[in-house]
């Protein structure tokens, strides 16, 4: 799903004035001797920028969730919202999906270009390098090749810190070179991320802080945790600014921090003015009036805030994460709109104008309220190949062993694995049991579809004739857990497959790296026809005189994936709430565009182009602690 590198932008050339020298009782303990004074400091419960009282008005926007051709547009929309700072995570697995290749910082992964671009638009930058980021992003940003190991994640386990240290060796000097002290826009860097809701390894937090400073970070460091004693106890460090994350009750959070850190300013590192969605639930929204009341409570008395999300963007490809509740997976949808003031497609929402007023913005809104869109249309969807035939048309190495190979054993981050075995099934009725499937599996016996295995079904009746059968199990990952103790959980056929009580042994396991498929590989899958079932690969041709945004819908289809000109747009699923997939203009070209659909259940006959998003029935949602 890689795109060519966009045109380079000039470096930020406007230098920030040198910070005045002043002896500060509140000087952070992390500042190395002789290091330049950081742009942001605090004194008397007030944040200062180069010695001048300052209120940070930030907004979350992730470069990895926005097409790079739209970075500047979205940054300008955040500036028009009244923000003076852009806040971004850095997703390690996005830059280094494979251990045997160095981290990539080109094209869509050019985080330095994104940071410079923010500076060119006159805004500061807060960087949150993790290595764990949560963010409803697959595996919380940790590479699956790391979490495949027997390693204590997010801890002082040397096996973990050594791997993070190698990553930071590549990343942090790039961020350090863009700090305010070097003439760049980076004014603050976060230590880990909401660690207090995960663990209490203070040695790890101190290591993380030292890993930043030893690699050149001299700007303000801070931690961010929920506003409870438990979370603040686990996630904060002496001498490092303690910020909070919240969706409501800012006065209670301010009192908590004032009691614990009486000299520090009140900084909300994440204000959840919206929320994310899971498949099978409702689309979460938050009224503008509710969001404004909390914003006003935060910025009162000199408080600073980062609106999360100010612009959410999209979980393109298979990067959406998942949560777990009572052992059940809750996969996150493709859209990361998050009911943000700047919508997924850049639209300025009513919340945008309400928050803009609350933030005190006075200048004109320079950007259009909406981006241009293609006219609505219905395009025929031509079924070209069956599911297994299409998947098998794209070559992939096969691993053979006595048990099914997990995604981790195959080195596969996301996508599917096709497991094939040839058990002998005695005459009569028997039970085929998949003891542990993560996350869903389509089960075939001698080419006949037996059904789908998932959280509510793991057994299938099979009739044997005393002969060897061809058993095929196609396992799909729906997203790696990004929060809580389930972080790093493995994917695939984890437990044994049984015929009655007897284990099936002798498996061929073929990884299907859908996220890495090229346009040529989707074309090979389409050419594997003709189809004889209702699932598989289909194609539609979309014509565009001038590329513009559009929203794709697949009425009548069940669940699957969509590529546009070889780029994996993301997952669709009739369980909702999301109905349309956002296709940004830079993915299209003038003339004919190929839309490829991989349908896992039942294929409809039409692809619809719509002129606005449809994210499903809504539910008012506010996340509260306590």
UniProtKB/TrEMBL annotation:
It catalyses: Hydrolysis of terminal non-reducing beta-D-galactose residues in beta-D-galactosides. SUPFAM superfamilies: (Trans)glycosidases, Galactose-binding domain-like. Residues 404-512 form the Beta-galactosidase 1-like first all-beta domain. Residues 48-359 form the Glycoside hydrolase 35 catalytic domain. Keywords: Glycosidase, Hydrolase. PROSITE patterns: GLYCOSYL_HYDROL_F35 (PS01182). Its EC number is 3.2.1.23. One of its GO terms (molecular function) is beta-galactosidase activity. The active site is at residues 194, 270. Transmembrane segments: none annotated. Residues 1-34 are annotated as: Disordered. GO terms for biological process: carbohydrate metabolic process. Residues 540-593 form the Beta-galactosidase galactose-binding domain. It is an enzyme of class 3 (hydrolase). Pfam families: BetaGal_ABD_1, BetaGal_gal-bd, Glyco_hydro_35. It comes from the Bacteria. Belongs to the glycosyl hydrolase 35 family. This is Beta-galactosidase.
